Amino acid sequence: MADAIFDLLVIGAGPGGYVAAIRAAQLGMHVGCIERESLGGTCLNIGCIPSKALLESSELLHQAQTTFQRHGIQTGGVELDLGGMMKRKEGIVKKMTAGIRGLFRKNKVTHMEGTARLQGNGTVAVESSRGTETFQARRILIATGSSPIELPGLAFDGEHILSSTEALSLSTVPEKMIVIGAGAIGLELGSVWSRLGSEVLVVEFLDRITPPMDREMSDLLQKSLEKQGLGFRLKTRAESAEVKEAKVQVRMAAGEETVEETCDKLLVAVGRRPNTEGLGASEAGLELDDRGRVVIHERFETNLEGVFAIGDVVAGPMLAHKAEEEGVAAVELMAGKAGQVNYDAIPNVVYTDPELASVGLNEEELKEKGVDYKVGKFPFMANGRAHSLDAIEGQVKVISDAKTDRLLGLHILGSRASDLLAEGVLALEFCASSEDIARTMHAHPTLSEAIKEAALAVDNEAIHI
Ligand code: NAI
Q1: Ligand 1 pocket, residue 205 CB under 6 Å
Q2: What is the pLDDT of residue 4?
Q3: How sure is the predictor about 3, in pLDDT bands with cuts at 50, 70 and 90?
Q4: Measuring CA to CA, which residue among 268, 230, 271 is closest to residue 252?
Q5: pLDDT computed for residue 1 by the predictor
Q6: Is 338's pLDDT higher than 60?
Q7: In the chain, fewer beta carbons within 10 Å around the N or the C end?
Q8: Rounded mean pLDDT of 117-129?
Q9: How many CA atoms lie within 13 Å of 455's alpha carbon, on the beta-carbon side?
Q10: 249 CA distance to ligand 1 centroid (A)?
Q11: In a shared domain, residues 60 and 183
Q12: Does 288 share its domain with 143?
């Protein structure tokens, strides 16, 4: 006998699950959301939000130490209070988690603490300190997210060999940190600890950093990070690590050569894997692909009738906003609405300084697809606001179709590129041309004028270069 009956049971309260639960409740469903840890999932507790808090704090410290004088500000001695910085970060997370609890109350979503297990026929067992309870639902939405990949030979010990979770909460600044993986996590957390005083070396298997991004933009970011003091070892595969007397010895292969490096902390950021353990996937007969992701068919439905899945646990980029959009679309479709996700307009941001932000296709992808395209670029060096902000690094790259001028991609390396990118996402959604962007009035003086100028540059009409 089930303890309660729901229209929808959402498993996981990360940005995919909690947003889907709220939207479903708005649409009139009786919704329960099961979460084994804190509300908000990886993003809010040990991912996007705490990392952005530390990135902001460490950037301010770095500015106070290096660039304030250029503004005519003498600070005297500036010191790091790492405990204070961590406390601020934790305070933000606490506030945001409480915010979700409030939203659940407001929308009458039932929050259940515990680990959910599929039992078949719309039944979910929830294990918690209260024991096992059973719930019945007309539909189940799996939004269990992902966890850091652990490499054989480089197993996390939480003290010296770290995942992103521990690297967000160190109590002292390591003298030397090696980061394995030049993706978003490696570069963002590498930047934090570098700004706080660590010597940081990033080891990357490929011959470039931030692989899904436009190559030229990634190379420019690498140069900026090198100027800030981050070291890079590309075309190098980390193979194993050993902890000896509180130091980590890392063995790496660079072609035929074996290299060893020693550090105080090793951060392994080589991607994430879908969370399906404990879900009862095999007993329930839930179809997974060769990478352990839940296979979804039309309308986000799995091979089990009435069981749906979204976010990091299914295929596609592991991004909070992609999970959110999928969650909303999935429950709207359940409610008979026309929910949809535009997978061609997923923004992607790396929050380094400068930030690297991208939407649509990059030059490498267009070449591979054989599409004829035009490119317009504009450097922030030629933008007045960038000078007043002391943020002249980077450039904007607009790519449009050679024949139709339809926008194909927007790539921005620069200060607040994350926020600037929204214009490109909207332009792609509206099938705008580069001329549409070029003829749109942009406020002066703003960084966004660089996007207009890059759009003008597509037809060699930029004014300020
Ligand atoms: P990633 O998949 O983005 O990058 C991992 C890198 O590690 C790759 O470049 C890969 O070539 C390299 N690598 C793998 N094995 C290696 C080895 N043995 N030695 C050297 N290099 C090796 O993974 P990351 O940064 O851990 O991020 C995981 C997911 O989380 C991604 O999907 C990412 O998009 C997402 N994320 C997004 C953020 C954002 O939007 N700002 C922030 C943090 C994570």
Answers
A1: yes
A2: 72
A3: low
A4: 268
A5: 52
A6: yes
A7: N
A8: 95
A9: 25
A10: 22
A11: no
A12: yes
For residue 54, pLDDT beyond 70: yes
User: Which CATH number fits the domain that encloses residue 365?
Assistant: 3.30.390.30
Structural domain span for residue 214: 161-270
Q: Which CATH number belongs to the domain containing residue 178 in this structure?
A: 3.50.50.60
Reading the block at residue 69, the tokens are 């004088």
> Which residues carry out catalysis?
444
Q: What per-residue confidence (pLDDT) applies to 345? A: 98
Q: Which atom of ligand 1 is nearest to the CA of 187?
A: 25
Task: Quote the pTM value.
Answer: 0.97
What type of residue is 171?
S
Same domain, 92 and 119: yes
Task: Express each pLDDT in 277-307 by its tens digit.
Answer: 999 999 999 999 999 999 999 999 999 999 9
Quote the CA–CA distance of 5 and 25 in Å, as a whole number. 15
Among protein residues, the one whose CA lies closest to atom 24 of ligand 1: 271
Distance 178 CA to ligand 1 centre (A): 15
Ligand 1 atom nearest residue 210's Cα: 9
**380 and 277 together in one domain:** no
Same domain, 297 and 415: no
> Which atom, in ligand 1's list, is nearest to the CA of 269?
26
Q: CB of 252 within 8 A of CB of 237?
A: yes
Query: Would you say residue 39 lies in a domain?
Result: yes
Q: Is 402 exposed, middle or buried (0-12, 13-18, 19+ CB in 10 A)?
A: middle
| Identity of residue 371 | V
Same domain for 202 and 288, yes or no, is no
Which candidate, 251, 247, 256, 249, places its Cα nearest to that of 238?
251
The residue written with tokens 């932000």 in the block is 357
Q: Are 285 and 142 in the same domain?
A: yes
